[in-house]
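Researcher: Let's continue the batch. This sequence belongs to Iron-sulfur cluster biosynthesis family protein, and it's 102 residues. Same format as the previous ones, please.
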Amino acid sequence: MRIKLTKEAVDQLQKATRPVRISGELVGGCGMTVEYALWLDEATPQDQTIQVEGLTLLLDPETIAYIGSETLTIDYRPQQGFRLVTPEQIVAYGLSLKERWG
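Model: Same format as before. Here are the structure tokens for Iron-sulfur cluster biosynthesis family protein:
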């Protein structure tokens, strides 16, 4: 997977104290709904680790499958938070960077 970061996203993600996990989790409901999050986390053996702009980004195989695209752009807008965007769609918006277990 190729990840692009906008300048605004880089500025915000550089504040991270640990690697940033892009997480997609299948949640209940009528159909396939995926809830995305950005976590401060540590790598696991199954993760794909991607270095971009001096930042370490982590994705597990399920999240990569849910995104369903070879390219993902992470953007940040001050009033809206982070957005995950593929060439085909806006995957998620309104995300904030959070501690995984806190």
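Researcher: Any comment?
Model: Helices lie at 7-13, 61-67.
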